[in-house]
Amino acid sequence: MLSRIRIVLVNTSHPGNIGGAARAMKNMGLSQLVLVDPAVFPSAEASARASGADDILANARVVPTLEEALVGCSLVMGTSARDRSLPWPLLDPRACASKAVEDAQAGGEVALVFGREHAGLTNDELQRCHFHVHIPSAPEFSSLNLAAAVQVLAYEVRLAFLALETSVPAAPAEPVAELATAEELEGFYGHMEAALVDIGFLDPEKPRHLMARLRRLYSRCRMERTEVSILRGILTETRKAARGEPYKRKD
């Protein structure tokens, strides 16, 4: 189950933090590390800070974009240390871990995303997340070291996993429908934006926060793959209608 929970570090500046994060992961039984455009990697400093978690570093995937790091994920949660202009569903570390383990148990791939040491995640990156996670540190000194933040969430994931292991087995549940993956949702959002431009509802020169608000709406829904397919079918016919093409029902 824990192998389906990946730690994603975005544009990490200091290789020592990558090593510290790898050690925190191994301490808590996590193994899947994805690095998005790190400043320096591989690195002797990362290996030194890993202190025995060299296998995590050796198996880490390095990708150029967050989009590629999230391929296959049905649940994405990004850490955020400050308030944003557009509020997003917010979780504390314990609730985040509970959701992560629940989705992983159901067979989903989960990503816990951490931003840059100096600036965290951008608004665009956070909009790719279903939930934001805030670690309630002391307000007079609220900035956590990146590896320490990974340790906090990894520890909570470990607790949630152990609680599940020791709980009384429940009766077999009904099959759970497959949730849409991150890349399927990005395709849907791109399709929807194009359709809204076609019908004149969205002005690409003055988009305001329309797409961000729609992302927030659909993120709350946790859409299934079949639901995304239905909506994309509607968008396809909407774009055809905007071009004056007749609708042909498919029985």
UniProtKB/TrEMBL annotation:
UniProt EC number: 2.1.1.200
First-level EC class: transferase
Keywords for this protein: Cytoplasm, Methyltransferase, S-adenosyl-L-methionine, Transferase, tRNA processing
InterPro entries (alphabetical): Alpha/beta_knot_MTases, RNA_MeTrfase_TrmJ/LasT, SpoU_MeTrfase, tRNA_m1G_MTases_N
GO biological process per UniProt: methylation
Subcellular location: Cytoplasm
GO molecular function: tRNA (cytidine(32)/uridine(32)-2'-O)-methyltransferase activity
Catalytic activity: cytidine(32) in tRNA + S-adenosyl-L-methionine = 2'-O-methylcytidine(32) in tRNA + S-adenosyl-L-homocysteine + H(+); uridine(32) in tRNA + S-adenosyl-L-methionine = 2'-O-methyluridine(32) in tRNA + S-adenosyl-L-homocysteine + H(+)
Domain tRNA/rRNA methyltransferase SpoU type: 5-155
RNA-binding is among the record's keywords: no
Subunit structure: Homodimer.
Role noted for this protein: Catalyzes the formation of 2'O-methylated cytidine (Cm32) or 2'O-methylated uridine (Um32) at position 32 in tRNA.
Family the entry assigns: Belongs to the class IV-like SAM-binding methyltransferase superfamily. RNA methyltransferase TrmH family.
PANTHER family: TRNA (CYTIDINE_URIDINE-2'-O-)-METHYLTRANSFERASE TRMJ, TRNA/RRNA METHYLTRANSFERASE
Protein name (record): tRNA (cytidine/uridine-2'-O-)-methyltransferase TrmJ
Species lineage: Bacteria, Pseudomonadati, Pseudomonadota, Gammaproteobacteria, Pseudomonadales
Gene from which the chain derives: trmJ
